[in-house]
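Much of what follows relies on a compact textual record of a protein's fold. A complete example follows; check for yourself that the lines match position by position.
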Amino acid sequence: MRKRKFDLNALPAAAGNEIDDRLHAATPLRKLMNKVFPDHWSFLLGEVALWSFVILLLTGTFLTLFFDPSMEETVYNGSYTPLRGVSMSRAFASSLDISFDVRGGLFMRQMHHWAALLFVAGIIVHMFRTFFTGAFRKPRELNWIVGLLLFWIAIFEGLFGYSLPDDALSGTGLRIMNAIVLSIPVIGSWIAFAGFGSEFPGTEIIPRFYTLHILLLPALLVGLVTVHLVLLLLQKHAQWPGPGRTNYNVVGERMVPRYASKMGAFFLINFAVIAIMSGLFQINPIWIFGPYKAAVVSAGSQPDWYVMFLDGSARLFPAWEIRAFGYTLPPIFWPAVVLPGILTVLPMIYPFIEARRLKDRRVHNLLQRPRDVPNRTALGVMAIAFYVVLVLSGGNDIIADQFSISLNATTWAGRIGLLLGPPIAYWVTYRICLGLQQHDREVLVHGVETGIIRRLPDGRFMEVHQPLGPTDEHGHGQLEYAGWAVPKKMNRLGALVPTVKGFFFPVERPSRTPIGNGGRPVSTGPQGQRELEEAERPR
């Protein structure tokens, strides 16, 4: 019997065939690998959030191995000398051990915290890009809702993780959280008792937050991220208008190999930036704050930046206590419970409100420039102004202390700013958008300024304009605005040599115009090559 020769080169193909015979994965994988993604820097904003979330999972797994989520009292006897002999919870003691006794523990803690801040920031910036460019329109309304859910779950995930060390700063935040829950009519006291296990601070809240932080909320985040990506793959990727781009195609790069390579490189860049920040910039030094004591609260207790708008709204809202039907609505209920509810529901239904107002039922795969939709852009900037005023008001005690002004004055400045700032931001943004639209139309009609001044026979001077297309008998351009950037400078029209690509050194050689002896162009054939060599030969 002849022995069959083993072919190592054929092994991958044979293994792939065997796997496909059982899983039938070739067709969906081929479709995934051939998926085309448009190439634009603004699409990387969502990847900042995605890769930050991956880093959160990796660093969180490391921290889980050493953290003890117990509120049982113990006496600290670790490496940090100033707190030796101090009574504290095991949660705080284990956090100190991670910071000072576990090799690389402090670095991992800081990476986890910086990645959390960047994760939420990435979601917010990505959602603003989606809003301003109209990427939430049909058929992407569901993905917009998924993104909003990711934002709020990320906030709760960060809030629970921020509370786990049981230090003085996070304990103050827990106290405020307990007051917010208690302010809810009818069910507030039941929810607070179920969460804390008893009167504040209780002994159960840290273990319960720990379960939510490492199990339930991460599972929800992973599920929503998966849904978000699946919807992205099933639908056409939205793209900017431009040459060759229509509502029915996507111009860009295939998933494999180019786009996948870029995604891998961007993950490494994201990882490196977070690692550098974690090594150079200290964040959340719990050993300075000390363990939480219910009777001790310090000034300057601000949460992470993404929660500061709720802190600011609570500080600005008047002390209006409403009593009716045997129930009391404390002042904190409106800014800390009602306002987040409005900020959740209103953005979710906005795509349907805009579609109904415009009577728009079409499918949109082309993005819009913000200047072309002044109403929506002004609304977005109005929301940003509202948010910025609340964030600044969340630190009004620090502002009052640093600038030696009255705390009451900063509170009233925040209230006035909250009423006047957003409308002013809306009006200014709306006018800027109209001005930018007008400028685009002027360039389309009159052409691009060349910088060349011509003197007319009657003595007047006039700048020469380069038309962008066909003109009428009066010299006015006939091009219509196509929803994409209008060139405003001559180098955009090929008047200057394109910039050679490269960072530290050029990666390509600029093309040369074939000029022979006497300055005349030559052909690109063999005869022309000989003429070029003759012209370059030193004399």
The CA atoms of residues 504 and 510 lie 16 Å apart. The two ends are 78 Å apart (CA to CA).
